Each structure stands twice: as structure tokens, then as C-alpha cells.
Amino acid sequence: MHDHLLLKDFMKDDEKYYVAKSLFSSNIKSNLHSHDFYEMFFVEKGTFIHYINNEKYYLPVQSIQFIYPDDTHCFSAKKDKETTITNLAFYFSELDDKCKSFFNRIRQENSNKGIPSVYALDYQWNSIFSKLGKIKQMPVEVQEYYFQSIIYDYIFIYNTNKLSAMNNEIIPGWLQSAKEEMKKQDNFVLGLKRFIEISGKSHEHLSRQMKKYYNQTPAQWINQLRLEKMEILLLTTNMDILDIVYEVGFHNVSYCYSLFKKKNLLPPKEFREGNRRIFNA
User: Fold this and answer.
1) For 272, phi and psi rounded to 5 degrees?
2) CB-CB neighbours of 111 under 10 Å
3) In Å, what is the CA distance from 33 to each residue of 3, 64, 75, 114, 279?
4) Rounded to 5 degrees, what are φ and ψ at 219?
5) With a threshold of 0.70, does the pTM exceed it?
6) What percent of the chain lies above the pLDDT cut of 70?
7) Kind and range of the H or E element at 56?
8) What is the SS3 assignment for 154?
9) In 3-state terms, what secondary structure has residue 5?
10) Is the separation of the CB atoms in 129 and 87 below 8 Å?
11) Residue 35 contacts by C-beta under 8 Å, 6 or more apart in sequence?
């Protein structure tokens, strides 16, 4: 037996899409459930453990999982780790005809089982996650455009994942390793100089490779890490905002606020006040 969730129980009467950020610790596991809506999970931090249709998957940061209503699933965080996810829930009727056709086709291609999760490269993740964070802040008449854009971004990521697997394109190991090391707060707060040091490459070579494989400069990617950590601290602690700014490695407060507002459409204080909303399945 499992629970069956209804989207109307989570949304207000005038809402078409449900968006929520959730923090999971390793001692929290959701109930096994299905639902009357479609859903997408975006893994922001940690490793998300997903149990779907009697199979178990580990989803790292920047993974996206698409869920069909008749999928039975539950989830938790990896042992001794915290995981932050954002989920987007909606009815199939909100998709346009091309998207409906796509999701029906890939469902059939996967023998009506849960479709594989996808991994978004940094530039792909930035695009889709920026829209995801802004959709509920937009006027109702604009939200539909953001929603359709998110869905098309996902379809693009799904197809590029599929093509990459077919072409076996390999990102240089030194770059993957350097990026993993830079995700540690002790490193990204030190900035570009630390990234160059860890990579063992020149600034010019590091910049070329980052642009080639991730469509970002090293500095842009580092600021992304800082902003993501800032968002987590705003939502999960009561630290003073200025202390958070310096904690994540920014030294220019006005520049930090400008980047933060560009990404989230809100300054840090309003972001903290408006986003402490938890999705509990």
C-alpha cells in the first residue's frame, strides 16, 4: 500500500504550478507514494536517494528527475549528509502538445518504467534553475512562459545527456577533480586564485576549458557556488545577512547583492522571508 497525493492539497486556488524547496537529513525518509500530478526534482546539494518503481538510484548535485503520476516512489538523503532539493509539480494539461508527445514517447521507450535522471552541465543548470527560482515571483500571466521554458530546458538537457552517452564525450579528469575540490566551502571562499592552484593549470587554460565544457568563466562559476551557499544559509540559519555575505567569500557587499538579486529577483532579506516553505510528501 502507498499514499496517493493530490496536487490541489498543496496549491492555492489560483496556482497552476507548485514549487517548493526542501531540506532532507539522513534520518528523514518520505512515505512511498504516487500522485495525480507530474513532478520534477532538482538536486541542489548533497546526494539524493530516490526509490522509484522498486529500484534505487543515487542522484548527485545538478541531477534532475522527472516523475509520472503512476510512478510509486519515496526519497531520503545519503547517510550522515543533508540534501536540498527543489520540486516542481504540475498537471499534464499544462504542457503544450509537443511536450506531451515527448514525455509520452520517452515513457514508452523506457518500458513504462521511471525514466532515467539527467545531469545538467553548469550552464544548463544555471538556465533552468534561475527560471525555477523566479517563476512564482512573476505575474500570473508570465508564469506560463517561465514554466514552458523550464520544460523545454529539461528536454534539451535530456537529449544532450543522451547524445553525450552515445558520443562518449569525456570532460578532462583534471577539470572534473578541480571542480569537485572547489565545491568545498574552504576552497570557493578563496576564489579564483585557489581554483587555479588546485587545477595546476594556467589562468588562460583553465578559462578556456571552463568555457568549452561549462560555458562559464571560472569566476562566474565560483560566484554561483557562493550564491548557492548563501541561499542555503539564508533558508536554514538565522545568521545576520552581512555575516553570510562574508562567510561565503564575497568582499564587496553591493556586488554580492547585485548578483543575488539578478539570480533570484529578490534581495537576500526578502528571499529569506518569502522562501521558507517546505514540501513534505
Assistant:
1) -60, -45
2) 6
3) 4, 19, 10, 14, 14
4) -65, -40
5) no
6) 93
7) strand 55-59
8) helix
9) strand
10) no
11) 4, 5, 6, 7, 69, 89
